[in-house]
Design a protein that fits this description.
By secondary structure, the chain is an alpha/beta fold. The chain is 35% helix and 25% strand.
Length: 273
């Protein structure tokens, strides 16, 4: 039986959002070599909410997402400047272990990327390498249940994960992320490679997961952002077209019905990008 936990209503004022944000980006600039990808970005990600990053291709949505769990560290010549904090702690401070950052702030990628192992081993792998001392069977079942996949795979746990459908593989990747018990889940267009039915399952899953986790999602799908997110950040290239930035942030309903920036309205209504 699923127990639904009531989450508090979303604050309307951005200043109030800052108060409840678990992730904060202030004055963030990202460079790949000499090319600047992000300029002076400010964003607050409130706890137990879904925040969507929207905007045209090439405006830096994925670059910003990767800042929040230091995935940009893995890209040669990438450089991140500015302040990014998780619960008040600078995640780029010299004494912070990026592996620990990625344990607490998990990530689900655009294309499902299960390991060429069994379904069970996919879920257990992260916990095992992190020295998990508890009952792995129980952990695997719990993660698969949270990812709404248990009933579909409980009798085939030791079969290859690669035999699953695309939508099942993506939910398996979400289960794999959940198994290491993060507090935040980053999702980079998690449904873009899936059919409409699988996409709706992922969206339903996100709504359930926000009761336990904070979610930040990149999506090109305006309808998806409107359906699932509590807050939306609109990103666009700067006037010189050389870097991306956040031009507007607020409650999703306000962004989609009463945007303050005419560029946001133009993008959402399909007249831009």
């Amino acid at each position: 039986m699923t127990v639904h936990v009531m989450t508090p209503p979303a604050p309307a004022d951005v200043a109030d959002v800052e108060e409840i944000a678990v992730l904060k980006a202030k004055g963030v600039n990202v460079y790949y070599g000499s090319k600047q990808a992000l300029r002076d970005v400010q964003l607050y990600v409130p706890e137990h909410k879904i925040t969507a990053l929207i905007g045209p291709s090439g405006c830096g949505k994925s670059s910003l997402l990767r800042c929040f769990n230091r995935m940009n560290d893995l890209i040669p010549e990438a450089r991140v400047e500015g302040e990014i904090t998780y619960r008040g702690q600078d995640i780029y401070a010299p004494d912070i272990d990026p592996v620990e950052v990625r344990r607490r702030i998990g990530m689900v990628f655009q294309k499902p990327n299960p390991f060429p192992k069994s379904i069970y081993e996919n879920v257990a792998w992260g916990a095992r390498i992190n020295g998990y001392q508890g009952d792995l069977d129980e952990l695997v079942e719990r993660a698969l249940r949270q990812a709404a996949l248990w009933d579909e795979v409980k009798d085939r746990l030791h079969e290859s994960a690669l035999a699953l459908s695309g939508g099942q593989q993506q939910r398996l990747c979400i289960a794999r992320t959940i198994a290491i018990e993060p507090e935040v889940i980053l999702m980079d267009e998690p449904a873009s490679a899936l059919d409409p039915i699988a996409t709706l399952k992922i969206e339903d899953l996100m709504r359930e997961l926000k009761e336990r986790y904070t979610i930040l999602i990149v999506t090109h799908n305006m309808q998806q952002a409107a359906r699932v997110s509590d807050y939306t950040a609109m990103m666009m290239l700067t006037e010189d077209q050389k870097a991306g930035t956040v031009i507007e942030f607020g409650q999703t309903e306000q962004i989609f019905t009463r945007p303050n920036d005419p560029r946001t309205e133009a993008y959402i209504t399909g007249r831009f990008g």
